[in-house]
């Protein structure tokens, strides 16, 4: 167990609660809501992951990694639902973090990983999401 356990558990619980309480927006796309899921959700997950992996390296145990990954995928699925799409996101937190670092943009990361709104579906980073 690392020093990040409490933050990870809080992020994962918040993501689960958002999924449970999600109601589809009346007007699609719900860009502001989608952006909030990315910044306050995916962005926070990536921040914890990067912080744990840099500086004072703090190994994350299997439960912590699973919590981060489930939270990141929950947030990405919520982002897609704000655009009227259902996806089953199956990305590793490392994939998400590397894409954020590469693009320097959490919105572009979500677009590339989920294909929502529609983008080049042949890109190699698309392997972790399946559209339902």
From TrEMBL:
Q: Name one Pfam family in it.
A: DUF8055
Q: Where is the DUF8055 domain?
A: 2-118
Name listed for the protein in its UniProt record: DUF8055 domain-containing protein
Which species is this UniProt entry from? Answer: Halorussus limi
């Amino acid at each position: 167990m690392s020093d990040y356990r409490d933050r990870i558990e809080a992020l994962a619980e918040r993501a689960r609660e958002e999924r449970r309480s999600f109601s589809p927006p009346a007007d699609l796309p719900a860009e502001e809501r989608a952006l909030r899921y990315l910044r306050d959700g995916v962005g926070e997950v990536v921040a914890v992951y990067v912080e744990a992996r840099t500086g004072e390296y703090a190994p994350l145990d299997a439960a912590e990694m699973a919590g981060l990954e489930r939270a990141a995928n929950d947030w990405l699925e919520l982002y897609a639902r704000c655009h009227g799409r259902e996806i089953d996101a199956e990305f590793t937190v490392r994939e998400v973090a590397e894409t954020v670092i590469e693009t320097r943009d959490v919105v572009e990361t979500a677009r590339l990983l989920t294909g929502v709104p529609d983008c080049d579906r042949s890109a190699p980073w698309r392997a972790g999401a399946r559209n339902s």
